[in-house]
């Protein structure tokens, strides 16, 4: 019997994890990993904060919550086995007024329901014990939240996939995937690139920022659409590196769709603040204005975006000063660490988040996976997607094999 043929589209951390998972289960499978760029982790995976999330915020029982907790364990095991840099530095979520304290208590209960280990509420003195330079009325401490080298981990996943016999086709964009019905057996799928077309028994699409476009070109629904939001990061001068021990986050405001600026240790020992969140004029423009006319027009003609925008003008007004002014950006972080006021540094390459949006303007919060014959399309894999990558890979292969 011929080996089962699999294709995985996209060599970000999720696609790399899926490709490896297939060969972990089926050592004789014929697996091809397609990536349109010249190297793995070129987009979201290589432009994020590097945080390994513990699962504080997510609705208990949701796919996000379940895959995050499973994913942390798998991620750390893989990192230690393959010498990928990781640091369990801990995190505090800091409340600055009584309203935020109440929200913090609700997050504490949610985190406990999700099984986050050793989570604890702290008063002001307790906060100072963990983070002496931080200021707030109370804090939620997650000692096992960490940071990791996500690009390095993705490279290690791809290297392990190659060692197991996997085939990697870099610089090979996929134009579309066609369904092929087989009267005598299961459906298959044709993956078409600019240079060839190949038939596969199973295809799993992890296309990130291009997920809606590849689905649409393949004859599937464009919805949910991807609306790109950029996040800026500011790397502080080295003299600030010892101001914090771990990660310092604000309490999320339920009126706003994003978490807000936080202070983050870097895996290289540095310290950075960010990200903010603002509409991006490009899906893949990481420097300068990043203007891409087709991407701008896609947003401008998306009715869901305008419905979203009409209800979130306050968010845009709140975020705009930090987008324009580095000083305002730093001031936002200094609310939690006053010693950061006036700190110097430089902007880092921005990240761009693939935010899936419904036609009614609501943001898609949980993971979304659609099946079309022999193909699975990952339509939304928001944070904690990187943390959850190896667990998402298990779930996707289970789904492809009819077990989920």
List the helices and strands and how they pair.
Elements: E1 5-9, H1 13-25, E2 30-34, E3 51-52, H2 63-81, E4 86-87, E5 91-95, H3 98-113, E6 120-123, H4 124-130, E7 138-142, E8 146-148, H5 150-163, E9 167-169, E10 176-180, E11 188-192, E12 197-200, E13 202-205, H6 211-217, E14 225-231, E15 234-236, E16 247-250, E17 262-265, E18 271-274, E19 278-279, H7 293-300, H8 303-310, H9 313-324, H10 326-334, E20 345-347, E21 351-357, E22 368-372, E23 375-380, H11 389-400
**Rg calc:** 21 Å
The shape, in one word, is: globular
Please give the oligomerization state of what you see: single chain
Rounded mean pLDDT is 93
User: How many strands appear in the DSSP assignment?
Assistant: 23
What composes the largest sheet?
6 strands, mixed
Strand content: 15-25%
Structural class: alpha+beta
Q: Which parts are unreliable, with pLDDT below 50 for 5 consecutive residues or more?
A: none
Tally of helical runs: 11
Q: Share of helix among residues?
A: 25-40%
Main sheet strand line-up: 9-2-1-13-23-22
How far apart are the first and last residues' alpha carbons, in Å? 26 Å
